[in-house]
Design a protein that fits this description.
The chain has 814 residues and is an alpha/beta fold. It contains 36 helices and 16 strands. It has a 6-stranded antiparallel β-sheet. A hairpin with a 2-residue loop joins strand 3 and strand 4. The chain is elongated, with a radius of gyration of 31 Å. It binds guanosine-5'-diphosphate and magnesium ion. Guanosine-5'-diphosphate (GDP) binds next to helix 3 and helix 6.
Length: 814
């Protein structure tokens, strides 16, 4: 019988894992090992993936993967003789006795499963504001911070989450290399108190590595709430690693943790010792054979604990093989390893990987049997109730769509009120400054360049904060992981993966972190596709453009235009993904194993911190790139200067011929001359030349040269599109809002900068055309090739051009 045959509510016991390679390894690390009970909970809306509960935790698997796990029904399972807990202390002064340290800097690395609270802990200790989120894979790369405490300087590094130390995903590889190359003084292994069994798997591997370590028993509050009891001091003594309970989200227990780190560092902690996690004799025999070999080779044994290498070698870990490859004895070791693997296969009827995993789980279960007394899980109960709706066949999608709609509606509608206040404030400032400053280039720079540019963009701060509030709530609460779960089947149809959905939702905030977060995707081709379609997901920097134009030209159904643009972006992304999968990357099947963490209500503190960080980043962007871009744009349009006398007669005649009668009647000759001079000034400025050179390309959509300039400037950052419009479409009086200026017919040509059709085409163009520099850089960095960056620029711009043209032509029909 296979796992996929279980019906909701039925329980089976695992007897064998079929399949091979990364999938096998990963499901075993997740806890699918021989002898483990698994209960099926429910199907996703489209019958796939399936949610199981295992070790009190919920995990989802694709149906095809569940078919690779052999089970027997619970009744048939004859309980095997309880595994004996086997701990054999090893004397402390063997391989690496260390002198008492005299320098007072302690380098710490945080290692733990995804979503165990590492980043929360890091933020508390280092006073940083790194992103936390309630799903796997939020932290990418290593973040560093430091703090002073009791005369020590702690350098602390937050590493990505991993289930084990093997080389199957980029994060695992990263953490492994980090531990090897940077050699932190103390490893802080963060484990989730409410899900110890799975979390301690990684701990057993760290113990094999034989490094100085402290365990932070995080989310201790959840353990307390569940009325479970853990004699953590006893457990720490058994593991040879001190355990300190913490609540990283509130900061409780952190002092004790730091004290313990100091103790361990100074070699004063009584519980610290190196243990061997003994496995059954057949396995130990294999480990010993290889270990003895490695011990003979000092170049190898100095870098890593020989026992660790031996175990990893038996598991055929690619990274360890890579590490040992250069040794002259490598072929000999491989022969030995193959012999041992074959022997194990013969004697135990299974391969080394699954035997070792199940031995380790046996060890953990043994240790917990002595120290842990389970209580009932209240948290789980509420999680189950919420999940019954949120991942339900009927309600799952509608609820998600509703949440998305609410997010964009709130961004547009609710954000409009504070936006108005800031708008008024900006124009008030502009008027006041106008009154008190003498005319001249400096006043022009301040009013037209800086306030016109930066002021035009800063008003959208509230909208962007609202959007981020929604995204961060979805991340922190655990809803995002559910969304990936219910979307898996649909994403699969595009040749992608449920996990790809998270970077896409994050893209609504900013494409750069979204592109980086694709590291959670194990499959290379899925990851590349997710990266390449991400720029079509409309980021918050594009919001100002939509709000400005949709609000001005579609006053009654602006929110629909707004949402429509997002939908268009998603559709283009989907089609692009399908094409890429079909023509470029051949299909690959990746295992879908994703945790469904229990829901956690985000703390107000964390939410406010998140908003504050976002607001700060936005303001910094205003003061940085957008300010600079506005000044440059202003200067390019301001110079060279022209007087009335410089304007050629032919230009004047042509302008007069085009001029609407109303302007001619209501203005004196001098005023008309000034108008024409100003126009000439802009058109023949440096920027005017650039804009006019490019204008023919976008003339089919009826964009003028000023609009063209704003599009070009948008490559610095998408907000600059609006700030450029603000600089170039100067109003008659300073208080006039940019949205009004864009609708008012020019007094010279009688033509307004935008109408409904051009505004729509312009928004479509901005949605799709080349990503900003930061995104392109992220694409190149994450894919490791400039070709993908070039592809993004060319493909996206071509697509934008075509679709904007189509939009324009459809729009002028109405
Ligand atoms: P990481 O993936 O290991 O970096 O984990 P994060 O720091 O991003 O945290 C994951 C989730 O757990 C977030 O929603 C945190 O707010 C939450 N969290 C972290 N520490 C605690 C804790 O001690 N108690 C509770 N209840 N939640 C916590
Ligand atoms: Mg993290």
């Amino acid at each position: 019988m296979r796992l996929s045959d279980l019906k909701p509510g039925e329980t089976g016991v695992i007897t064998k894992i079929l399949g091979h390679g990364a999938f096998r390894k990963r499901v075993m690390e997740m806890g699918f090992v021989r002898g483990r009970e698994v209960t099926m909970i429910l199907n996703a809306p489209l019958q796939d993936p399936i949610k199981y509960s295992l070790m009190d935790y919920e995990v989802s698997l694709r149906r095809a993967e569940a078919q690779l796990i052999e089970i027997v029904p619970l009744e048939e399972w004859v309980k095997e003789e309880d595994k004996k807990l086997m701990i054999h202390p090893v004397d402390n002064n063997d391989e690496d006795a260390v002198d008492v340290r005299k320098d007072r800097i302690i380098n710490i690395a945080l290692v733990g499963n995804p979503n165990c609270g590492k980043t929360s802990l890091f933020n508390i200790v280092s006073g940083s504001h790194e992103r936390v989120g309630n799903y796997a894979g939020v932290t990418i790369g290593a973040k560093e911070g430091s703090m002073k405490y009791k005369g020590y300087k702690f350098n602390i590094v937050d590493l990505p989450g991993t289930y084990s130390l093997s080389a199957y995903s980029p994060e695992e590889l990263y953490v492994m290399r980090y531990l090897r190359e940077e050699v932190p003084d103390i490893i802080v292994n963060v484990v989730v108190a409410s899900n110890l069994e799975r979390n301690l798997y990684l701990t057993t591997e760290l113990i094999d590595m034989n490094r100085s370590m402290v365990i932070a028993l995080n989310m201790y509050d959840e353990l307390e709430k569940s009325h479970a009891k853990l004699e953590y001091e006893q457990l720490g003594k058994m593991l040879g690693v001190p355990i300190v309970p913490t609540k990283a989200s509130s900061g409780w227990g952190i002092d004790k943790l730091l004290d313990t780190i100091i103790d361990v560092y100074e070699l004063k902690n009584p519980d610290t010792r190196h243990i061997h996690i003994k496995m059954r004799p057949e396995v130990e025999q294999g480990v010993t054979v290889l270990k003895d070999e490695f011990k003979k080779d000092p170049t190898v044994s100095q870098k890593f604990a020989p026992r660790y290498l031996a175990i990893k070698m038996l598991e055929r870990d690619p990274e360890v093989e890579h590490l040992l490859q250069d040794s002259p004895n490598y072929t000999k070791w491989c022969t030995l390893r193959d012999e041992e693997n074959q022997r194990l296969e013969k004697e135990l009827g299974d391969d080394a990987n699954s035997i070792i995993a199940s031995e380790k789980y046996g060890f953990i279960q043994g240790a917990l049997a002595e120290t842990f007394e389970g209580g009932e899980k209240q948290e789980e109960q509420s999680t189950k109730i919420i999940d019954a709706f949120v991942t339900n066949k009927l309600f799952g999608f509608p609820i998600f769509l509703l949440v998305m709609w609410l997010m964009f509606w709130a961004t547009f509608q609710i954000g409009a009120y504070p936006m108005e206040w800031i708008e008024n404030l900006v124009s008030w400032i502009s008027v006041e400054i106008g009154k008190y400053m003498a005319d001249g280039p400096f006043k022009d720079l301040l009013l037209d360049g800086i306030i016109g540019g930066v002021g035009g963009v800063i008003v959208f701060l509230p909208n962007i904060l609202i959007l981020y509030a929604f995204i961060s709530f979805m991340e922190d609460s655990g809803y995002m992981a559910r969304v990936a779960f219910i979307m898996d089947k649909l994403m699969h149809k595009m040749g992608l993966h449920g996990k790809s959905f998270i970077p896409l939702v994050m893209g609504f905030g900013c494409n750069v972190p979204a592109i980086m977060s694709t590291r959670i995707i194990e499959s290379k081709s899925s990851r590349l596709i997710t990266i390449l379609i991400n720029p079509f997901i409309s980021c918050s920097a594009r919001i100002p453009i939509y709000i400005l134009l949709a609000g001005a030209f579609f006053p009654h159904y602006g929110a629909w235009v707004f949402v429509g643009l997002y939908v268009l972006g998603v559709i283009v992304a989907v089609i692009t993904a399908k094409c890429l999968r079909k023509f470029w990357f051949k299909a690959d099947e990746t295992p879908f194993v994703m945790e469904l963490p229990p829901y956690r209500i985000p703390t107000v503190k964390a939410t406010i911190r998140n908003m504050w960080t976002k607001a700060k980043q936005y303001l910094q962007k205003m003061g940085g790139i957008i300010l600079v871009a506005s000044i440059i744009i202003w200067a390019l349009s301001y110079f060279p200067r022209y007087e009335s006398a410089d304007v050629p007669a032919t230009f004047k005649e042509a302008a007069l011929a085009d001029m609407p009668a109303e302007t001619l009647e209501s203005n004196s000759e001098d005023e008309i001359d000034e108008l024409i001079t100003n126009e000439y000034q802009q058109e023949y400025s440096i920027l005017g030349h650039i804009g006019k050179a490019v204008e023919p390309v976008v003339r089919p959509m009826d964009f003028d040269w000023k609009t063209t300039c704003s599009l070009l400037a948008g490559c610095a950052a998408k907000e600059v599109v609006v700030s450029t419009l603000g600089v170039l479409y100067v109003g008659d009086d300073d208080a006039e809002l940019l949205s009004e200026r864009l609708q008012t017919p020019s007094r010279i040509t009688g033509k307004a900068p935008f109408n409904q059709a051009t505004a729509l085409a312009f928004m479509v163009f901005v949605l799709l055309y080349f990503p900003c520099i930061a995104s392109i850089t992220a694409i190149v960095k994450e894919t490791g090739s400039w070709k993908y960056g070039a592809f993004s620029v060319l493909y996206n711009t071509a697509l934008a051009w075509i679709l904007a043209l189509v939009t324009y032509h459809i729009a002028i029909l109405f």
